[in-house]
Design a protein that fits this description.
By secondary structure, the chain is an alpha+beta fold. The protein folds into 2 domains: about 1-30; about 40-125, Lipocalin (Beta Barrel), CATH 2.40.128. It has one helix at about 5-30; strands at about 40-45, 55-60, 60-70, 70-85, 90-95, 100-110, 115, 120-125. Strand 4 (about 70-85) and strand 5 form a beta hairpin. About 10% of the residues are buried.
Length: about 130
Amino acid sequence: MRSSTSTRGHSVRMLRAGALALVVMGALACSGNSTPPPELQGTWSTEYPDYADRGFAITDSSVTFFQGEGRSSVHLLVGVESEDRPGRVMYTLQYDLDGTTVGFSFEYTEPGRIRLENQEHMLWERES
């Protein structure tokens, strides 16, 4: 037969475990969407000469980076974050790279045009 102290301790542990589960489920539910909006989906390229054979494609579930010479890498999207700024929206696509979550950030400044966070001097345009 259990003592009331033992039963009370068990109940407290169960309540804590339940509260932790609710916090985790809430964080997962609020962690963002993993589907980019339609205006980001498509193939993107730039006229910048050093990147003529480079580019990327965004679908509803992945991002593909074209690396030149017919090479590419496809990555599953795990999250999409957005931040409204004056005259533009900053997006970060989070994708899986060998078990690590990596971010790909850019500004959507006008329909069909973006600028990568680390290459603001280059304009990328959606082909399709």
